[in-house]
Structure formats: C-alpha cells, structure tokens
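This section describes the prediction task in plain terms. A model, or a person checking by hand, is given the sequence of a single protein chain and must write out its three-dimensional structure as a string of tokens. No templates, partner chains or ligands are provided. The sample shown here is typical of the held-out split.
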Amino acid sequence: MNKRYFLVLGTFLLALLLYIDRVCISVAKDPIAGDLGLNDKMMGWVLSAFALGYALMQTPSGMMADKYGPRKTLATIVSLWSFFTALTGAVWNFIALLAVRLLFGAGEAGAFPSMSRAIFSWIPLNERGLITGINFSGSRLGAAFALPAVAWLIDVFGWRVSFALLGVIGILWALVWFLLFRDEPEDHPSLSAEEKKYILENRQTVSEKVQKLSFKTIISSKNMWLAMGQYFASNFTFFFALTWLFPHLKNKYQLDSLEAGFYASAPLIFGALGNWFSGWLVDYIYRQGHWKYSRIIPAITGFILAAAGLVFSVYAESVFPAVCFLSMAIFGADMTLPPSWSTCVDIGRKHSGAVSGTMNMAGNVGSFITALAFPYLKDWTGSVTPFFFVGAALNIIAVIIWLGIKPKRFVEDY
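The expected answer:
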C-alpha cells in the first residue's frame, strides 16, 4: 500500500479520537451537572468554553504547523489536549471545569490546520477532496461511536475515570505519530522512489521563494472573509449535534441514556457519509476540468440540505422523523467541509495551516454561539423552534457567500 495512505489512516484515527474526546462532555452532562450542581445555562457555558479556546488558538496553531511542521506540532498538541481530557475527570466545581475545558479547546485547536499542512505536502491535488472528506468522516464516526460507547463507559466506570482513560489513548497516538511521520515525503526513509516521484509531480506547486504571511495579510483577504463567513454557518449547525442534540432528544422524547445515544449518533453517521460523498464529488468535478465549481457546487448543495433539514425537523412529532431530518441537516452541513478545507489549501498553499486555522477560528465562534444560543433561546422563548430557524437562515446566507469565493486566487491576492 502507498505510504501516503498510512498518513491518511493516522489522521483519520486522530479525527476519530478528537471527537470522542470532544463529545464525551455532552454524554456526561447529567452526571457532571449532578455532582457539581450545575444547571443548563452553566453547562452551556462549559460547552462553549471549549469552542472559545478552540477558536482563539486556531490561527496561532496553524502558523505553528506552517513553521515547525505537522510532525512536531501534532505530537505536542495531542499530548496537551489529552492531558486536559484526563484532567477534566479531576475538576471539583464550575470554575475549574470551565477553565479545563477552555484549555482543552485551545489544545485541540491545531489538529485540523496541522492535517491541512500535512495534506499539502503529501497528497496530490486530484486526491485532496476525498482525503479531506475521509479525515472529517473520522471525526463524525468518532462522535457517533462515542455517544453510546461513552454512555456505557460512564455507567460502568463513572465520568471521572472515563475522561482519564481517553487521555491515555491520546498520549499513545502522539508517540506513534512522532516516531513514524515525516513532514515532507522527501524525508521519509521508507517511501519508494516511485511514490515519491508521483507525489512531487502531482501535488500543488509553489514558487521556491515563499513570502512570510502576516495576520494582517490574512484578514485583508476577501477570500478569507468569505471562507470564514460560510464556515461560521456550517459550524453553527454541526456543533448542535456535538453538544445539545443528545440531551435535547433525551429530554424531549423521554429516552434513557443508551436510547438517546443511539438516536443522537445517527446524524453524525450521516455526517460521515456527507463527507465521503462531498469529497468524492469535489475530486470528480475537479477531474472534469472545473477547479472552481469542484468547490462551489458541493458546498452550496450541502448548505441547502442543511437549511431544509433544520426547518423540517421542527415539525416532526416523534423521535424517528426528527432524527431523520436532523440527519439530513448534518449530512448537508458536513458536505461543506471537503470544499471548505480544500479551498483553504488552494488559496493558502504553504500557508494552508494559518489560512485553514483562521477559517476554523470563525467556524468555532459559530460553535461557541451555538452552545449558548440553544439554552438561552429556549429559556427566552419557551421553545427550541427559534434556534432551528436561526440555523437555517445562516445556511441560506452561506449559499450566497459561496458565489463570491474564488478558489484559484491566492490569499495574498484576493
């Protein structure tokens, strides 16, 4: 098997772990709230603290990946977030939990920007969409697996021990990554001459002299702002599935934890399918000679599906149709990921870590707002309906945004 596919396996498993660690707090909401005396609004701040830390460190961690390479960067940040995952099990009050989850989010921030930087060096341009889809499908499958599995783990061992076990797994991944991965295919000792030649001839080319990219240049780019705006909408929809979907289904339809876990995992599985389909579609359209439309068509299709799914779910009277429509919404929201991240690599090139990190920063501002908007809108209006209509409206705005994105124009130029 080609060595670059071992890279894909490693990043897929990392995305799997990333979201198992991330969604664990949602599954553990009731026992944590019970032990620490927290209400729904306080838990909303706990869930949003992760997104805030994650958002704030996106661009710095992306720049770190560009400067030091994804080998050292990923080994370092995975070790850090795994430490804070384990430390979550040792918190004693609301403030301690808030601080640990903020630091956990900051630790996780560099994962996908570092993956983007590795993809730039290792993955040919005509494979970029599918590989991105595979990586993000790992995150959705990880979250889907975590919902019932972590519910069982917490029932058996308690929430404190569960967080500690997950932290140990992350440390092991970081060690294996550092030992086996190399930043550039030219530096890998066991890469065949044939595969090395294929990668170098088919990956995106850049000039030998690469100018330093300042944060001012990044935020002056129209492409960058458009990418940030549409990703804000995508994350607003998706982060609901990671945070409030499980307790929402459990409370609204009077389910036990395992039932809620299985129902809440369905939209995440459809999210993985959306990543795979969109990744394939990106590469298929690109191979037909349409670079621009290979990014725009999958993204717009996804946002339309996401808006429709959110609106239809409001009118579902039982758990099964509600989950079906929410699965449609998450399938659509996740269709936007391969074109979004492929576009960041397109316009960022050797600075793709910083560019993708900046886009992801905006996306996780959306996540931060989602975690708070759901409980607060419910409290203010007495209904969850306004939340879903806000999400749908943001998705329609994102459709319009994509019409202005130009994937073939570099971030320094447009």
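For orientation: The domain at 4-185+215-402 is CATH 1.20.1250.20 (Growth Hormone; Chain: A;).
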